Amino acid sequence: MTLRRLALSTMLGLVITGCVGPRTTPTPTDFPFSKEDPTGLQVRWRLVRDGAQVHVDGLVTEFSAIPMKGAILEVRGLDAHQRVVSWAWDVVHWSDASGTDRTRPFQMRIRAAGTEERFDVVVLQIDYYDWGG
Fold first, then answer.
1. Could you tell me the fold of the domain covering 33-128?
2. What are the DSSP calls for 3-22, one per residue?
3. N or C, fewer C-beta in 10 Å, the chain?
4. Cβ distance 122 to 92 under 8 Å?
5. pLDDT above 90 for 89
6. In which band, very low, low, confident or very high, does the pLDDT at 17 lie, cut at 50, 70 and 90?
């Protein structure tokens, strides 16, 4: 009976903790799409289509001399005429002005219109830390 309780306790522990092994932090090589924005950001992402849903996740790295507070990113679905037919956005926040937290993750979900030929991630806006200077 004690062995049975031990097995049930172990299974309950696995269910509570999510039944997964150690989670790994994604690295830039996990993302096949990449671009450097002239504003001082490098954006890397991957895109997964699941029916009418498109899932985009990635990493954004700042390489500006002035630390950033945040950025607004947008995924755009473009048709054959390069018109935006679907879109979604996300706000990415950096934690401090020290510059030690240079890479941040992002995720966006978009319902595809069905006429998209390609998707792109663009930087819409950046908010820099004010150095008072």
1. Immunoglobulin-like (2.60.40)
2. HHHHHHHHHHHHHHHTS---
3. C
4. no
5. yes
6. very low
